[in-house]
Design a protein that fits this description.
Elements lengths: L8 H17 L3 E5 L5 H7 L8 E6 L3 H8 L3 H7 L4 H15 L3 E7 L14 E8 L8 E6 L5 H15 L5 H4 L1
Parallel strand pairs: 1-2, 1-3
Antiparallel strand pairs: 3-4, 4-5
Length: 175
């Protein structure tokens, strides 16, 4: 017998919070994923009624997809690399614009087992969050280095971080 959910419970529980809290805040959300390959979008769609808030998920694994679907400039990828703050920032802004969402989170990284370097080892994941109508300079970007947790472990942690970034700010956050 299969469990009620296809994905790990911690991811589903956080996705439920994201859907419920964004619904309460009247916000729509979009996701631009690379190394997570649709995991965040899948988590959000595990939640009944997620269509109230979840507008679109873009899985842009290849650089060409980031350029064609999200409008990431080829120069950004050529200069900074696909796994960079600049690329994640561009992905998040592209997702907000293309999906006409209130907020979008982008995830790009190196899930391994290969592909890492001294500067960007396996387990490096870059995030960006963009809000519609916000000053582009205010977009949040972050880099996490999870270490080599294995491909599944890195993708799991990356999805949790992305979901956390989709939670609306609390009164304490705004103070």
């Amino acid at each position: 017998m299969m469990s009620e959910h296809l994905l790990p419970e911690d991811i589903v529980a956080l996705a439920r919070r994201v859907v419920d809290e964004n619904r309460a805040a009247g916000r729509t959300i979009a996701v631009a994923e690379s190394c997570t390959g649709g995991l965040v979008s899948a988590a959000l769609t595990e939640i009944p009624g997620s269509s109230d808030v979840f507008v679109a998920g873009f899985v842009t694994y290849a650089d060409e997809a980031k350029i064609a679907l999200l409008g990431v400039a080829q120069d950004v990828i050529a200069t900074f690399g696909a796994v960079s703050l600049a690329t994640a920032w561009s992905m998040a802004h592209g997702a907000v614009a293309k999906a006409n969402a209130d907020v979008a989170v982008a995830i790009t990284g190196i899930a391994g087992p290969g592909g890492g370097s001294d500067r960007k080892p396996v387990g490096t994941v870059i995030y960006a969050r963009a809000l519609a109508g916000d000053d582009p300079e205010k977009a949040l970007t972050d880099e996490r280095r999870f270490g080599d947790l294995g491909r599944g472990g890195i993708r799991h942690q990356a999805a949790l971080c992305a979901l956390e970034l989709l939670l609306p700010p609390t009164a304490a956050d705004l103070a």
